[in-house]
Specification:
Organism: Ferrimonas aestuarii
Largest sheet: 7 strands, mixed
CATH architecture of the largest domain: 3-Layer(aba) Sandwich
Oligomer: single chain
Keywords: Hydrolase
GO molecular function: hydrolase activity
InterPro entries: AB_hydrolase_1, AB_hydrolase_fold, Epox_hydrolase-like
Protein name: Alpha/beta fold hydrolase
Order of helices and strands: EEHEHEHEHHHEEHHEHEHH
Radius of gyration: 18 Å
Structural class: alpha/beta
Amino acid sequence: MLDFSVEGQGPAIFLLHGLFGNKDNLAGVGNALLEAGFQVIRCDLPNHGLSPMSQSMQLADMAQLVELTRAHLQLECIAMLGHSLGGKVAMTYALAYPERVSALIVADIAPSAYKVERHQNILRAFERMNAQPPANRQQAKQVLTDEGIDLATAGFLLKNFRTHPDETEPRWLMDSAQVIKHYWDILGAVPFRAPYTGPVQFIKGERSDYLTAEHRLDVEARFPNAKARVIPNTGHWLHAEQPQIFNRHCVSFFSRHLLTATQ
């Protein structure tokens, strides 16, 4: 089961963050959905945050942990919003458990396999820190910047260098060894099953190359009723770069497909 937080009442929406993140990353859109009348469940993906470590990161295995979390919460049906890796896990879950998913938003990721390694310097930095763990935040930051990681990305990664609730010393709340081990599983294609025919909204950052026209056939084969929106002047971190527009799209989509269905 995943670590999670639950807030609000109404139709339940699972929020799944991206690689190297944690459940706090989607707090902004979570708050917007709470105000719109939804129950929001923010989850830490496996090997991230406070979720179990030393877990497989194959997409099907991560989707199964989402299912265990849903069953634990005794929710008959859920909607899902996933960004990047969280979007791949959400797509995998919707295809594996279509009867459990009422609606799906996928933020800036395709169901396709990615052939090019995108995080070489981050993986090198974590390999160094696995060999010689940093004693404090400044040492961790130095390793990251020594590998050419920009300060904004380093700051994002350092959100995972913090104290576990049961401990007193800070450490990485992320099993980077498992991320490295399963990196090509993470970049792999969403397992193909019978198409999910429920409502799906893909939201793309205009400047991002994670979701492009070349992915269209893979999207249509798995999600024949999918629609797409593009947020202008935005990259891969669309929920952080253009939060008002992103939140508005998410609230509108879920309100249309969930709130009107319950009225």
